[in-house]
Sequence to fold (122 residues):
Amino acid sequence: MSDKNLDKIYITDLALRCIIGINENERVEKQDIIINIVLFVDIRKAFKTDNIEDAVDYKVIKKKIIAFVEKSSFFLIEKLAEEISKVCLEDKKVKKVSIKVDKPQALRFARSVAVKITRFQK
Fold:
């Protein structure tokens, strides 16, 4: 299925805390991260039936992401973004996902540093 036939579900500004970073002080206390997710799906069946069974249950995906991230302790936001994409793609209705992970206060004088990745269903 090409991207032009896919619809998008956005999960915007999911604010979580986890251990993330390479510096010794970053390995001690959880830090704020902001996650933005775009789920690429085909919603045609769901809008016809109006049944959650035919839709992507984004609340379930959000809960899985929260549980995963809050227990994680990666060194790089690149790795965190990759693992979040795997959580999203567990739902076979999600054909493609775009993940952006922001790490506020990672750099002095910058609001945030972010990594954005896109992954596809295999």
The longest strand covers residues 7-20. Helices lie at 44-49, 58-71, 77-89. The chain has a mean pLDDT of 95.
